[in-house]
Amino acid sequence: MAVRDYEDDDAEFTAGIDEQLDVVRQWWPADGAPAPFLHIPAPELKQRRDIEDFLEDHQVREMTGKALVLFVTGHGISSGSRIHFLKLPGTQKGRVLATAVRTSDIVMAALDSHVENVLVIVNTCYAGQLAAELGLLHTEIGRGRRRACQLDVLVTCGHDQPVQVRRFPSLMRGVFHRLRTTSQITAPYLTVAELMAEVERELATPDQRELHQLRRVIGNGQTAPSPCLPNPGYRPVRRLVGVGREQVATDADDYWLDRATGRTQDDDSGWYFSGREDLNRQVAGFLATAGAGVLLLTGTTGSGKSAILARAVTLSDPRFLRDATYAQAVASAPAGTVPPPCSVTTAVLARHRGPADVVHDLLTGLGQAPCTPRTPEESDDPVPLWTEQLTTYVSTCREPVTIVLDGLDEAHEPHRIIHSVLAPLSPLCRPPQPAPAPRLPGPRTPEPGPPALRLLIGVRSGLPDPPRRVSGAGAEADGLLESLLQVFPGCRSARTDDSSSQNDIAAYVHALICDDGDHPGAEKASEAVASEVWPSFADARLAGEQLRAVEDPEAEVATEQWRTTVRAGTTGLLRRDLMLLEAEKEGEDGKKLPADVALALLRASAWAQGGGVPWSDIWPAMASAILQRPVENPDTMIKKLLESRLAGYLAWGVEDNRRVYRPAHEVVARTLRDPNVEQLLYGETP
Q1: Are strands 401-406 and 453-460 parallel, antiparallel or unpaired?
Q2: Are 250 and 653 in contact (CB under 8 A)?
Q3: DSSP character string of 102-155
Q4: pLDDT tens digits, residue range 61-112?
Q5: How many whole angstroms separate alpha carbon 633 and alpha carbon 620?
Q6: Cα(515)–Cα(524) distance, rounded to whole angstroms?
Q7: Cα separation, 573 vs 680, whole angstroms
């Protein structure tokens, strides 16, 4: 509802109104969106009756639907009675009651409609004056509607402030761009609070925020995303695994796909998983059994535990098996290494999750109504409450239940997860005991056996004599394995770091180097890498990514410099990547990502809590603190990092509806948290 043709206004005002309408059409698209809006522009508004006719003709007060957005712009009038009016071309001085329109009448027509979610934005001078007026009228809306529906009114200035006609469109275009780039909110809709926060971030100074920030004058306290606020940065994710096998916690749904494929970049659709046939057959055979049991997959840091588990999770999912992108990988899998479809019920990553998070994720992943986590009382510990709920469901489930749990050693309070969450499941994992023979002759009705529960758990453990580069696999990790063996007596276990895995590492590196076809020298190069990095698939991934970029991998690995690099493990590979980055030329934009800035950004991701560091304002602030100086052009620098060779050191996930970034492996995280890691910038190894 835009009033634009005032007789005493110049072309600047009219152009500003048109810009506002262009921005509104951009934010609330009529086509090309998952849920497009129907645009109803007001006709030429000259007299008060034009407003009334518009509301009546389109039956705004009786309107139904999911979402209604009303945008009001034009000249506002601040009256002596503290009532806000929308000025019209036909408004007469001294006769506002008869010739202007109470803005609150327009707003309330939308709020008191039958639409489930309503958002009104008023961009006129003195719009903040509506707060008191609407506060009284809002109570006249039915109590049930006020509670059940999301009703919000935003104004663009205070009660005594004019507006700049072109400020709103320029501000909203900036926010639109932020949401499509740096904000990285992943939900299809925004909350009102998120919109207001993004607008405030676009305003550089306190004076600008005082003049131009959005003000919420009506809101019923709901914090859920509103269908009235489509997120311009939302990108639908192509689901390759079903709901039960999605990452239901802090990390991205394609965590399992990253690990299963062995890819080094998010947009890579290749499948590089190679070798490990015996382990894959053990896992596939375990998942194919009809009975209960526990299989522990263990090995030292970076030895490929997650890859084995993720391969089983993805290849057991019918939706993934139907995807043409990976059809060849499925078809070429060695016999006996593909688990039966639907043989994994749910898979959960325990990394950086506590006991309550893990059991909550298990219940959520099972996806059945009885598994909806109950709401604990304020004084309750949710762990025993949800564990009892999980145990009850599994013990009464008619179908076998198979749970995959990865990253137990990287969880918060892993011993409590073992003893408080997993131990109560132990009786359900034991094969049924044969019933005693009846004492009396005659037929005996067989009793139904207990439900079958299979647990497939990935946990780190140390080697008796670990290689010099492998760290973090000491007593704590071995203690977790011992605890699991005590809780699950008679369970099976398999290691990922025996001597045969060196051939598997060579096959993986060979697959990375030969991604775009056969490469001369790839076989010898991959064997050379495997001999140096064994048993670390994590280091092999980084080394393989570097060798993909050189013309002669065999000649490269023959140099003393390369051997020194690889023998230093993750730190050596990172040092080389930083040196190569420093040697690169400026981009087409005339800017270059300095190595020290890149390292600071990587280190910020390693120090982030939870699922990782969000871009927005957080990542630049953390990197600036590490550098002890502001990062210049931080958004450009982050974009360059994510497009550079160093992107292979990062993985991304989702937390609180924001994309977050973290080190691709715990080995990388430990390297980046080393206080001496800055020595890498000078070609030295910490």
Answers
A1: parallel
A2: yes
A3: EHHHHHHHHHTSS-SEEEEEEESTTGGGHHHHHHHHHTTS-HHHHHHSEEEEEE
A4: 999 999 999 999 999 998 878 899 999 999 998 899 999 999 999 999 999 9
A5: 9
A6: 16
A7: 10
